[in-house]
Amino acid sequence: MKKRQVVVKRDASGRTSSTSSSMVRCVRYGECQKNHAANIGGYAVDGCREFMASGEEGTRALTCAACGCHRNFHRREVETEVVCEYTPPNSS
After folding, report:
1. Which residue in 12, 16, 75, 82 has the fewest CB atoms around it within 10 Å?
2. Does residue 67 contact residue 6 with C-beta atoms inside 8 Å?
3. Are the beta carbons of 33 and 73 closer than 8 angstroms?
């Protein structure tokens, strides 16, 4: 898993310093891993390289338009980004 930390510095009035952080997650579904030959004791995948949702734009379709498999058969890739904000204290 890749993690990236971004630090943002801002000037604010006041003498207090504060730190806040948030995590941003982006989920992407990669190649299909469904074993189509499991019932005969073999191993064969269909070669679908990326999940493409079937259905209307903006709906949560769970079947792939390319291979017809459920989204759970596709490899899940999660990218996590941690964003930290720090406000230094003002020196007077």
Report:
1. 16
2. no
3. yes
Q: Give the C-alpha distances (Å, rounded to integers) separating 73 from 38, 43, 51, 70, 85.
A: 14, 14, 9, 6, 38
What DSSP string runs through 10-74?
A: ---SSS--EEEEEEEEEEEEEEE---TTGGGT--------S--B-SSTTS---BBTTT--BGGGE
Q: Does 9 have pLDDT greater than 70?
A: no
Residues sharing a CB contact under 8 Å with residue 88, sequence separation 6 or more, in sequence order: 9, 11, 17
Q: Taking Cα atoms as reference points, which of 70, 37, 36, 35 lies closest to residue 51?
A: 70
- What residues form DSSP beta bridges with 18? 87
Q: Say yes or no to pLDDT of 73 above 90.
A: yes
